[in-house]
Write a structure and sequence with these properties.
The structure holds two protein chains of two kinds. By secondary structure, chain A is mainly alpha-helical. Helices cover 75% and strands 3% of the residues of chain A. Chain A starts with a helix and ends in an 8-residue tail after the last helix. The two termini of chain B are 41 Å apart. In chain B, helix 1 runs antiparallel to helix 2, helix 6 packs antiparallel against helix 9 and helix 11 runs antiparallel to helix 12. The relative contact order of chain B is 0.10. By secondary structure, chain B is mainly alpha-helical. Classes of the chains: A mainly alpha, B mainly alpha. The interface between A and B is large, with 37 and 37 residues.
């Protein structure tokens, strides 16, 4: 029951926030934060009261639409719990950093709650149609966030975001429906039951391709990434935080959770392609990031580069690589949402994100400068940050699979140093010319950043905290795979 | 006639009685017109539910199978909601009841006589409703419906005549028998149905009707006629052997319509025209399901999709201030209703349209019709673009604007709220609807299974009777 509350609370809470919104923006924000915090408490309660059977912290099953073969199957392991916690926390952050949103603050905060609710549904569902429901549901409030409160070119960006992702989602839906239609009687769309079915490798590969279409677009990995830079650039800060911190993670999560579980043979067939795509994606995106003059676009491309590394890790299929992918998912959520918060704060003060016009932050706004330095260090995977842990693990794992891909991932790391230092040099150091960034970070921006930075450092310095939680899910994913993937 | 046979006709009779009563009331007691028509619909609803487990009692012209019963239920629900449209003309309730009766009869028809009569009843009632306002645009819309409908009816009549010549029978089953001229007849009947279903390339009347006619007439065309034609198409195509040319043709035309409808919807600037093209696309999707789907689930998916389309269309029509072309954007409530309607038409959660799309894809996946699924995905992508352009214009860009204090209170507000609630209910809790439809459709054996047997019998008879048919057929010039 508690699991259901994790998404039902923000879903229904969104309506309450919408109603409260008429009484004022502050009250709507407070209600939203309260509801999400309550969700965190419920999550904490579930984790603390979990029966110690190793992997699953909580499970719920109930029939929902038997004549359609749909039932509510929710389960939470360490990975799901981490991601749910992440989405609740980032939801709170998104609300906190938007104190003076106009117009329709009620609808704004409600949309944030609905996005979080749908993401939590994705992280917990094990009935494939319910999963698909949340998967597509997420797009509607996120569309509203971009289309209503975005910047100048928001219309096109919002449309690109919705159409690309909703269409890719249909690939997942078609594959899931085929799985259910050809599965054993009474299994419906229960992923656990469907995982037992043995299908020919080729069929698995096709079905995996259908699932992967949705996941890789959401991730996104080049060449399927065209929607993301626009969506990030045009979205309001809160929207960017949710996009980078939660929505992209649903893609990585889906890949991680369902590909080995449902299509082990398909993963074996497609893994080399996945790794190659990831390697291409991370280098391509890192190079493109070097050429950006728009700070938000730059951060968006770094997101693509990092999520491509996650794809490499998942496709790698060995313990280190998958562990690294899981860690990177979490680490990237902290660092990229913090960077979007910072760039958004700069834009709010100066009205521009153009790197050529910004500069000298460390003279006028030291807190800003420090925050930028910390989170760009995380983005270039400085040792001591959780990002380092993730990328190091992925690269270590890749060396076990294929040294070429490992080398390419290393090259991408080197390029990340280039774009990160370039941005730091432009914004933080150098002359304070043309536009001054003033005033410095306000408390409502500073404290979320402190929280995100502390988490990055905490998991970077005490990696066991995170590894311990994620390990059962990683082990289960690897156990589902047939044999160690062939080493070419 | 046995008691069972009479009771099988009762839902239809109560709708017809409702129509007559409403017509009389229109002359003598205009206030009672809507209540009489509503009573007819409610009685039909109750009778369908009352007969839910009773054995089949088909008559010579009308089947009494699960699909016919489910369609009667759905048509009564549609009709009931259509009575909620605020319309000034006092004849409107009677015409709505007439359209419902026609749809119920058409969905049950297994014979040319009942089929053509019933279908024309619905169509002519729609024409009258469209023209009733009497202004130029309404008359134009009505004429544009009337002429294609006449062509379609003529084609169908000729088709049945060919079937009679070929197979010696006027039943739907004879059309599919493949004897003599029957295939040509079947093709002509299909042509007529394609016309009425507004499939590409005979779709041009639909957007014009949707734009020009009053909202109530649009809803009758978009719901009642669509239901009737869809079920007839299912009865015609469903029993055909796998890979039959007619099935492939209707599926292909459906796919084309889904693509073209969504593509042209992209370029629309008015909500009503968007709905018209969306209706073409919707028909296309259903035709694709009927043509390429196989097995028992098709009927359920079809009925579910029709029911899911119902509140979405009503919400969008109601948000367009019922009779005005542009959406009314003075009221947040209306914007929310329009948002839900458009999301449902696009087929995204948490709206009923999403579940309907799932059911349709499931049937196509079951039949391994991968090409049609690819087409569906492509068409849906265009649809997302088309519908969300309107979300952007009428919902996103207006967010935060309060109600205009000078604007008159929206008409049909209750209709809008009810439609929005229904969209969410079907989208979030689909089980009651799906279970009810499945129960009714399976309580009496559904049609395809039955008529497969009938077709086999008919084939046997045909082989036996062939020479005689040819000898008596005026079209046969073959010397024997």
């Amino acid at each position: 029951m508690g699991l259901i509350l994790l998404f039902l609370l923000p879903l229904a809470g969104g309506l309450a926030v919408l109603a409260v919104g008429k009484a004022g923006a502050r009250r709507a924000a407070a209600t939203g934060i309260l509801l999400l915090a309550l969700g965190l408490l419920i999550l904490l309660g579930l984790v603390l009261t979990a029966e110690g059977d190793g992997r699953w912290l909580a499970e719920t099953r109930m029939p929902w639409a038997p004549s359609l073969g749909v039932s509510l199957i929710f389960a939470m392991d360490g990975l799901s719990a981490t991601l749910v916690a992440l989405s609740l926390v980032l939801g709170i952050v998104a609300i906190i950093v938007s104190p003076d949103v106009r117009p329709a603050p009620g609808l704004f905060h409600a949309s944030i709650l609905w996005t979080v609710a749908a993401a939590n549904g994705v992280f917990l569902s094990f009935d494939l149609l319910v999963f698909a429901f949340f998967w597509e549901l997420m797009l509607v409030p996120a569309f509203l966030l971009i289309a209503i409160w975005g910047h100048k070119a928001r219309h096109k960006a919002a449309m690109k975001f919705l159409v690309t992702n909703a269409t890719a989602g249909l690939g997942l839906i078609a594959a899931a429906l085929y799985l259910g239609a050809t599965g054993p009687a009474g299994a419906g769309f229960d992923a656990f039951a469907l995982a037992e079915v043995d299908r020919p490798a080729q069929v698995q590969a096709w079905l995996l391709a259908g699932f992967a279409l949705a996941f890789l677009v959401k991730l996104p990995v080049p060449p399927l990434h065209a929607w993301l830079p626009d969506a990030h650039t045009e979205a309001p800060t809160a929207g960017s935080i949710l996009l980078a911190g939660i929505l992209l993670k649903t893609g990585a999560y889906g890949l991680f959770r369902f590909s080995p579980m449902l299509f082990p043979q398909g993963v074996v067939a497609l893994a080399p392609w996945g790794m190659a795509l990831g390697a291409f994606g991370t280098i391509y995106a890192a190079l493109v990031a070097c050429g950006q003059t728009d700070a938000k676009r730059l951060v968006a491309y770094t997101s693509i580069a990092h999520m491509s590394i996650v794809l490499m890790g998942v496709a790698g299929g060995v313990h280190f690589a998958m562990m690294g992918a899981a860690v990177e998912m979490v680490a990237h959520a902290f660092s990229s949402s913090a960077l979007f918060l910072l760039v958004g704060a700069v834009e709010k003060r100066t009205g521009t994100r153009d790197l050529r016009r910004l500069g000298g932050l460390q003279q006028t706004a030291p807190r800003f400068a420090t925050a930028f330095a910390v989170f760009f260090s995380a983005a270039l995977a400085m040792p001591g940050t959780a990002n380092f842990l993730g990328e190091a693990l992925v690269i270590t794992g890749m060396f076990q699979v294929n040294w070429l891909f490992a080398a390419l991932a290393l090259v991408s790391l080197v390029i990340s140093v280039v774009y990160a230092t370039r941005l730091l040099r432009r914004i933080v150091f150098g002359e304070a010319h043309q536009v001054a960034i003033d005033p410095d970070l306000a408390p409502y921006e500073l404290w979320p950043l402190v929280l995100l930075g502390a988490s990055t450092l905490l998991f970077g310095l005490l990696p066991q905290l995170l590894l311990m939680v994620l390990e059962p899910a990683v082990d289960a994913a690897i156990a589902a795979l047939p044999a160690p993937p062939p080493i070419p | 006639m046995t008691g069972e046979e009479i009771s099988a006709l009762l839902p239809l009779a109560s709708l017809a009685l409702g129509a007559v009563a409403a017509m009389l009331a229109a002359a003598f007691a205009p206030r009672a017109s809507v209540p009489f028509a509503a009573a007819g619909h409610l009685a039909a609803l109750a009778l369908v539910l009352w007969r839910i487990d009773s054995p089949m009692a088909p008559s010579a012209l009308l089947a009494d199978d699960g699909i016919a019963r489910a369609a009667a239920l759905v048509a009564s629900l549609f009709g009931l909601s259509l009575l909620a449209f605020p319309v000034r003309q006092r004849e409107a309730p009677a015409l709505v009841a007439l359209a419902s009766a026609g749809a119920v009869a058409a969905a049950a028809s297994t014979h040319a006589a009942s089929l053509v009569l019933a279908l024309e009843t619905t169509t002519l009632a729609t024409v009258a409703l469209a023209a009733m306002r009497g202004d130029r645009t309404a008359l134009e819309a009505a004429i544009k419906l009337l002429i294609p409908a006449g062509v379609a009816a003529a084609a169908m009549l000729l088709g049945f005549a060919f079937a009679l010549a070929g197979a010696g029978s006027l039943t739907l089953a004879a059309l599919g028998s493949g004897a003599g001229l029957a295939p040509l007849g079947a093709a002509l009947v299909l042509f007529g149905l394609v016309f009425k279903f507004a499939l590409v390339p005979t779709h041009m009347w639909a957007p014009d009707l949707f734009e020009g006619a009053p909202a109530q007439a649009v809803a009758v065309a978009g719901l009642m006629s669509k239901l009737a034609v869809a079920i007839i198409l299912l009865r015609l195509i469903g029993p055909l052997p796998e890979g039959h040319g007619l099935a492939a043709l209707s599926g292909a035309l459906g796919g084309l319509s889904f693509l073209v409808g969504n593509l042209v919807a992209l370029r629309q600037e008015r909500l009503r025209r968007l709905l018209g093209w969306s209706s073409v696309a919707q028909s296309g999707l259903l035709a694709m399901l009927i043509g390429f789907g196989r097995g028992e689930g098709v009927a359920l998916a079809l009925l579910f999709a029709l029911v899911a389309y119902w509140p979405a269309l009503l919400a969008a029509l109601a948000a367009g201030r019922l009779d005005r072309e542009a959406a009314d954007d003075s009221n947040p409530l209306i914007r929310l209703g329009l948002l839900l309607g458009l999301v449902s038409l696009a087929g995204l959660p948490a709206a009923g349209g999403f579940v309907a799309k799932l059911l349709i894809i499931r049937e196509l996946a079951r039949a391994s019709a991968w090409g049609s699924i690819a087409l569906l995905i492509l068409g849906s992508a265009l649809g997302f673009l088309a519908y969300f352009r309107f979300v952007q214009r009428f919902v996103a860009d207006k967010a935060g604007e309060g109600a205009d204090p000078d604007a008159p209170p929206p008409q049909g507000r209750a209709l809008l709220v009810a439609a929005a609630a229904l969209i969410l209910a079907i989208g979030l809790v689909p089980e009651p609807l799906a279970a009810l439809l499945a129960r009714i459709a399976s309580a009496a054996p559904s049609h395809p299974a039955v008529s497969k047997a009938t077709i086999a019998q008919l084939h046997a008879k045909m082989a036996h009777r062939q020479p005689m048919v040819h000898a008596t057929s005026p079209l046969s010039r073959t010397p024997r």
